Amino acid sequence: MHATLKPPPLRDDCFALPAGVDWTPVDVALDGLRQRLHCVVAEETLALSAALGRILAKDVVAARANPPEPNAAVDGYGFAFAALGAGDQTLPLVEGRAAAGVPLGHPVPYGSAVRILTGAALPEGVDTVILEEDVNASPEAIAFREGVKPYANTRKAGEDKAAGDAILRAGQRLGAADLALAAATGLGALPVFERLRVGVLSTGDELVEPGEAARAGQIYDANRVMLLALLSDMGFAPVDLGRVGDAREALRARLDAAAMEADVILTSGGASNGDEDHVSALLREAGAMQEWRIAVKPGRPLALGMWQGTPVFGLPGNPVAALVCTLVFARPAMGVLAGRGWSAPQGYALPAAFEKRKKAGRREYLRARVREGQVEVFASEGSGRISGLSWAEGLVELPDGAVDVARGDRVRFVPYGSFL
Ligand code: AMP
Ligand code: MG
Question: Domain 71-155 falls in which CATH fold?
Answer without folding.
Answer: Molybdopterin biosynthesis moeA protein; domain 3 (2.170.190)
